[in-house]
Structure formats: structure tokens, C-alpha cells
Amino acid sequence: MEFESTEKKKRPQSRVCVVYDPRDGRIVHGHEFVGEGTGVFGPEGNQERERETLEGARRNHGDVSRLRVFHVPADFRFAPNVAYRIDTKAGRLVEHYKWPPERRRPKPAPVGEEGRPEEEGEAG
Fold first, then answer.
1. pTM passes above 0.85
2. Fewer Cβ atoms within 10 Å of its own Cβ: the N or the C terminal residue of the chain?
3. pLDDT < 70 positions in the chain
4. Secondary element (H or E) of residue 53
5. Are 64 and 77 in contact (CB under 8 A)?
6. Are 3 and 12 in contact (CB under 8 A)?
7. Closest CA to 61 of 20, 94, 12
8. Of 17, 25, 28, 22, which Cα lies nearest the Cα of 57?
């Protein structure tokens, strides 16, 4: 995840955990922890981050007994318009599907003198 700020401080530290299905690597839930310091925000907080992420998955998706937790590397940057999955053999996050960029909207129809769109063949 990316952060923007008008302050001159560096962006806050972010750690991401995802819950995935080990059968196909499909990610079913994710949680981003943003903050500085120790505990859940520090390197020693892996177990607490796992617990909180699994709890969120349980609340939203029910039974999580067959699911696993993956800790996204701290230097990983998610790309926009990309779905990810876990490569279960390599044990890493990989792109699964990339959506095309947003399509440009068609130009609005020209407005005639009476404030309504002109129809084809209509001369003004």
C-alpha cells in the first residue's frame, strides 16, 4: 500500500498479512498494519499479526481452519489493478490477474442552442 502526505516525514512503516487457500493460493483476506515501534508493528509481532488477520478472515468468511497466513515482505509494493495469489510451491506472492487500465469515457455529445444534445443530421 502507498501513502501520500503533505508532511515532510517519511511514510509510516507498513506490514501486510494475507490469508490464503493452500490448495490454489487464492487470497481470501488481507490486513495491513501501519505504525512504528515494537509489538504488532515490530519484527517480533508476526504471531500477533497472524492472529489478528485470521480473526478478520474468520469474521468475514467463516471457517478458516484450512487456510494459511502469509507475511508479505516489507519491501513488496502492490501494483494497482492487479490481483495476487500465493505461489504455494515457491512460497511467494505473485501476480494472478491484471486488469486493463480504466477506459476513457466517451466525449459528451455537443449541446445545441436549446441546451439539449444535438441529434445526428440536425443542423444548427
1. no
2. C
3. 1-7, 101-106, 109, 111-124
4. helix 46-61
5. no
6. yes
7. 20
8. 28
